[in-house]
Design goal:
single chain, alpha/beta, 6-stranded parallel sheet, two-stranded antiparallel ribbon, 4 helices, 8 strands, globular
Length: about 200
């Protein structure tokens, strides 16, 4: 087994109509469904927050959404309540073909720390087990797609590169909250040796 597709947080709360919508987030679903056959292994990450999560603005009286605070020693953006465990918003988008997904790695379950990356929490104190899983399956190449580009996708990609995987971003199967910030993130990805490609390029690899 040589290459894996990691689908990052393609959940109802991250598409238009959700609690924390990524503009055009629903548009990646047909692209993702189309590229699934190109991969030996497909896994997914899932934001899975308890209602009292420290990243939710509603849990900080006097603060408002998108304020920045310190949480457990780390800088933390305060988000709308999203992807709360067991809610419709935390479910994968209905049209997403999850049949090929072999394993789901949930993150953001510790109320004291946020988890953007599919590999570690933001303080890199705890692992989700994804790296060990991929190493155990003999994966060498990691392809990443999903939501949101400059946050959870970016952090997952940077950790994958740090862990020694040959890492790729599938740009047209990803959407950010803000394109300008995503462009900056992609520049840093490339500086780390990450390859950025389009879904149409997968047939040539």
């Amino acid at each position: 087994m040589s290459r894996v597709l990691i689908l990052v947080d393609i959940q109802n709360d991250f598409i238009p109509g959700g609690a924390l919508p990524v503009p055009g987030g629903d548009q990646i679903v047909p692209v993702v469904n189309q590229i699934l056959p190109f991969f030996d292994l497909v896994v997914a990450t899932q934001d899975w927050h308890p209602p009292d999560h420290g990243s939710f603005a509603s849990n900080h009286p006097g603060k408002k959404m998108y304020d920045t605070i310190e949480l457990n020693g780390l800088q933390q953006i305060l988000w709308p309540d999203h992807c709360v465990q067991g809610t419709h918003g935390a479910d994968f988008v209905q049209n997403l073909n999850t049949n090929p997904v072999e394993a789901i790695f949930r993150k953001g379950m510790d109320p004291k720390i946020d988890s953007y990356s599919g590999f570690f929490d933001n303080g890199r104190k705890k692992s989700t087990g994804l790296a060990d899983y991929l190493h155990g399956r003999g994966v060498k190449e990691v392809f990443v797609a999903g939501l949101a580009g400059e946050f959870c996708v970016n952090y997952t990609i940077m950790d994958a590169a740090d862990l020694g995987f040959k890492t790729f971003l599938i740009k047209d199967a990803t959407r950010p909250l803000d394109w300008q910030n995503f462009e900056k993130a992609m520049q840093k990805m490339q500086e780390k040796g990450v390859t950025i490609l389009e879904s149409k390029d997968l047939g040539n690899r």
